Amino acid sequence: MRLEDFDNDEDKVIQDRLKRKTWNEIRTNDSWAIFKIMAEFVNGYESMGRIGPCVTIFGSARTKPEHEYYLLAEKIAYKISKAGYGVITGGGPGIMEAGNKGAHLGGGTSVGLNIVLPFEQHYNPYIDSDKNLNFDYFFVRKVMFVKYSQGFVVMPGGFGTLDEMFEAMTLIQTKKIAKFPIILVGSSFWTGLIDWIKTVLVEREGTVHAEDLNLFKIVDTEDEVVDVLNAFYKKYDLSPNF
Predict the structure, then answer these.
(1) φ/ψ (deg, to 5) at 149
(2) DSSP alpha helix (H) spans, 52-151
(3) Is-above-0.90 flag for pTM?
(4) Candidates 3.40.50.10490, 3.40.50.150, 3.30.530.20, 3.40.50.450; correct CATH number of 8-235?
């Protein structure tokens, strides 16, 4: 079928991606992509290197300001900033906005790593004006989260939140990065997933080791989040960066 024969934009995009390209087209497109990727890494490293490590808060972009998880994320970010840590979020609405808002109200560093998306994503107004970074590539952005975070606070979210959480666990599990706190907030939200991991992945299939369940903590309050962070860094003789 020809591109013009498709009725909707999604089918047209798929057809265009599957269209055979000449070697010259492939080489040209890939070469320019490499330069764009390099530019995002360089800009990210230069900007984040001046900020220093922080704590990243993940969660759904769809959570409304009146929702209990939004309000809790705001409290967590406020407490984190008052404890001396900076806060990084994905820069968008929902839980990300709550994280930046809490850091802003707490007088702490508020960083946003925004991603260009066709829907949902737009940067929120609580990011420090000089710490609002924009990315085209998810994988470059994820490197920044991991490289410059002293901990992950994972609020309830969707596929993106789960992706970021499991990538961090995998990197620690495979010793590609040093261990740092991964804190899942909201036991009622996370219990079903964790029970499935225990019963299916650990006990039935053996695809995950039981000790890997120690890679994360589940908490329900802002005070517990700060307690986990402080206990971890006291053990390893480290301190907040701000």
Answers:
(1) -110, 135
(2) 68-82, 95-105, 138-147
(3) no
(4) 3.40.50.450
- Sign of the alpha-carbon torsion through 90, 94, 95, 100: positive
Q: In what order do the strands lie in the sheet with 87-89?
A: 132-135, 110-115, 87-89, 54-58, 149-154, 182-185, 217-219
Question: Cα–Cα distance between 132 and 106 in angstroms, integer?
Answer: 18
**Among 174, 168, 159, CA closest to 216:** 168
Higher model confidence: residue 236 or residue 167? 167
pLDDT, one tens digit per residue, over 70-128 is: 999 999 999 999 999 999 999 999 999 999 999 999 999 999 999 977 665 578 999 99
Tens-digit pLDDT profile for residues 46-65: 999 888 779 999 999 999 99
Closest CA to 55 of 153, 141, 142: 153
Residue carrying structure tokens 């759904």 = 60
Report the largest interatomic distance among the alpha carbons of the chain, rounded to a whole angstrom.
64
Name the token pair of 144.
């920044």
Each domain of the chain, given as residue ranges in start order, spans: 8-235
Q: Which pairs from 178-181 meet CB under 8 Å and 24+ separation? A: 179/215, 180/149, 180/150, 180/151, 180/152, 180/232, 181/150, 181/151, 181/152, 181/217, 181/228, 181/229, 181/232
